[in-house]
C-alpha cells in the first residue's frame, strides 16, 4: 500500500488561432480550443496512491488549433485525478493546499491555457487583424505532494508480535504475511469485516513517537478511527506493565489517539489450558474487566470477537448520530 507520493500535474496548452480566408478573401480562421483543466475528485473506489506513484506525472489534453470556415478547435479533455478520501495535497514547499474528504466533489487545481484567437475574431482590426492570429495560452505545471490518511472503523495496535495480523486475517478475507517475528506488518493493511473497515498498523515500540521502530510513519492513520483495538499477547511476563507502557506510548503519539475508545483483546490464549485460562482471567479481571481472550485457532473465539466488535462499533456510530 502506497500512502504518499510526489506528482507533477500539467494542464493542457491552448490551441493556436488560425489565419485563413474564404473565396472572397474574407477572414475565415477559427479560434483555438482551450486546454484541459486539472481537477482532483474524491473516490471511494480508490484505496491508495500506488497508481499515481508509478505515473509520477499526469497531464490534461491540449486544445486543438483553430480551423478554416470559422471552426474553433476542440477544447482539450480535462484531467480528473481520482484520490482516496482523506488525501492531503501539499504544495512543493510543504504548505497544505487542501484535503480531499468527500466523494464525488471536484476541485480544480490548474486552469488550461486559453485558446488563441483566429483572424476571423481579429478581423475588426483592419487588414492587420485579418493577417493576425494569437497563439494558445501556455499550460500550467505544478509539483504537488499527496499524503493519504487512511480512514477505518477500528485500528489494531500493540507491540510487535502481538498477533494483530492474525486476528485481522481471521476476522476478514484479508490474507497477508503472518510470521512469529517482529515487524511482520511493514505497511498499513486494510481489511473488510462485513461493512466495517479494519486497519492493522505496524507494531509500535516504545519511542515510536520519536521515530523508533516502524510506527512513526503510520501515526497519521490513527486520526480517523472510531475504535482502538489494543492487542496484548498473553505471552508477556508482565501484562499490566506492557499495557501501561503502550498506553503511555499512545499518549506520547497524540492525545487524539489516547482518547479513542479502547477495546483490549488478549491474544494467544491457546498457550493455556482451559483451567489455566480461567485462573489467568481471574487474575486480570480487576484491571481488565471488559477485555476478551482469544485464540485465532479457535473459531468460536473469532466469532465472539467479531460480534463484540460489531456491537461496539454500532454503539459508537449510534452515539455520534
From TrEMBL:
It comes from the Bacteria. Residues 1-151 form the Obg domain. One of its GO terms (molecular function) is magnesium ion binding. Gene3D superfamilies: GTP1/OBG domain (2.70.210.12), P-loop containing nucleotide triphosphate hydrolases (3.40.50.300). GO terms for biological process: ribosome biogenesis. Keywords: GTP-binding, Magnesium, Nucleotide-binding. Residues 152-314 form the OBG-type G domain. The keyword Magnesium applies. Belongs to the TRAFAC class OBG-HflX-like GTPase superfamily. OBG GTPase family. This is GTPase ObgE. It comes from Candidatus Dojkabacteria bacterium.
Amino acid at each position: 500500500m502506497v500512502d504518499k507520493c510526489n506528482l507533477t500535474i500539467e494542464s493542457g496548452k491552448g490551441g493556436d488561432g488560425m489565419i485563413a480566408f474564404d473565396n472572397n478573401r474574407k477572414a475565415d480562421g477559427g479560434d483555438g480550443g482551450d486546454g484541459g483543466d486539472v481537477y482532483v475528485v474524491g473516490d471511494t473506489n480508490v484505496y491508495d496512491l500506488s497508481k499515481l506513484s508509478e505515473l509520477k506525472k499526469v497531464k490534461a489534453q491540449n486544445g486543438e488549433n483553430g480551423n478554416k470556415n470559422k471552426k474553433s478547435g476542440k477544447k482539450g479533455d480535462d484531467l480528473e485525478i481520482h484520490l482516496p478520501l482523506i488525501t492531503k495535497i501539499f504544495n512543493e514547499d510543504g504548505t497544505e493546499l487542501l484535503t480531499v474528504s468527500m466523494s464525488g466533489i471536484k476541485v480544480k487545481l490548474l486552469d488550461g491555457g486559453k485558446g488563441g484567437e483566429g483572424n476571423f475574431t481579429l478581423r475588426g482590426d483592419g487588414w492587420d487583424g485579418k493577417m493576425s492570429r494569437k497563439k494558445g495560452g501556455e499550460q500550467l505545471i505544478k509539483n504537488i505532494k499527496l499524503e493519504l490518511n487512511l480512514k477505518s472503523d477500528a485500528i489494531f495496535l500493540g507491540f510487535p508480535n502481538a498477533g494483530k495480523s492474525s486476528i485481522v486475517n481471521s476476522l476478514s478475507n484479508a490474507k497477508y504475511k503472518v510470521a512469529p517475528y517482529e515487524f511482520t506488518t511493514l505497511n498499513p493493511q486494510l481489511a473488510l469485516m462485513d461493512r466495517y473497515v479494519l486497519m492493522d498498523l505496524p507494531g509500535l515500540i516504545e519511542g515510536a513517537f520519536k521515530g523508533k521502530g516502524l510506527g512513526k510513519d503510520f501515526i497519521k492513520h490513527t486520526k480517523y478511527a472510531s475504535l482502538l483495538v489494543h492487542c496484548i499477547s498473553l505471552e508477556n511476563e508482565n501484562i499490566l506493565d506492557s499495557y501501561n507502557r503502550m498506553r503511555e506510548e499512545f499518549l506520547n503519539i497524540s492525545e487524539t489517539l489516547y482518547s479513542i475508545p479502547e477495546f483490549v483483546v488478549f491474544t494467544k490464549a491457546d498457550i493455556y489450558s482451559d483451567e489455566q485460562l480461567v485462573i489467568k482471567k481471574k487474575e486480570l479481571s480487576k484491571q481488565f474487566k471488559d477485555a476478551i481472550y482469544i485464540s485465532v485457532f479457535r473459531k468460536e473465539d473469532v466469532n465472539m470477537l467479531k460480534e463484540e466488535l460489531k456491537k461496539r462499533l454500532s454503539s459508537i456510530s449510534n452515539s455520534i448520530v
